[in-house]
Amino acid sequence: MNDGEFLCHTFQYSVTRDDYSAIANGTFSNLVTAEWLQNTNSYSQDAIPAGGKVNVTVNCSCGDSNISKHYGLFITYPLKPEDSLQSIANQTKLDPELLMKYNPGVNFSKGSGLVYIPGRDENGNYAPLRPRTGLPGKVVAGISVGVVAVLLLLAFCVCIKCCGRKKKNLRTEYFGRNIARAREDKASDSFVNTSIEKSAEFSYEELAHATSNFNLANKIGQGGFGEIYYAELNGKKAAKKMDMKASKEFLAEL
Length: 254
Description:
Elements: E1 8-14, H1 20-27, H2 34-39, E2 53-59, E3 74-78, H3 85-92, H4 96-102, E4 114-118, H5 137-198, H6 204-210, E5 219-223, E6 226-233, E7 236-241, H7 247-253
Helix pairs in contact: 5-7
């Protein structure tokens, strides 16, 4: 396979008095080589301890959907001197071209090496290739990171939108209050000014006479700028404030 990767299965073999050649050629019927066992184990050829464990890694295949989806079970077959492409095709009743596709570049008449042949299950049927539903770890990690980033971005946008809407509402409420307050003040000033402009003017003597010289019997209240007296002027009831200092405030009190 690519990048030095390959499909395999590792068996653990308990050694009695064997060496790598006996294990490869005898016990495992040339499915591995003595050199391969030497490279994949820590024991040297002449120092394999009795009872020790030897890792026997056998190459295998799981099929290729680009070739055929009808074959998902494969036999790892060690080539013998008497084998050829046609003889193996006759034994397995498979198309030679199909065998070549699963073993590209292999010389079936070499007498050594491994080839992969579609195998049958316990019922004598060819097992179809199972679709791979899982994704590689890097792909899953990439998708997870992408999804998290999108969710964070959406959450950030929602927060900004909500905060903007809240600030807008606060600004609207704030300016609305100020505008209403300004209108009230303006209306009050307009009322005071209008009242002052239309108010009749009386002399001190007239006011003193109308209130019996500011008699306490006519006093009806006390304001922030003086005492308020009741009187009738020109046949109309009126309130009069003693020591008047601010006409607007007086009218506002009224």
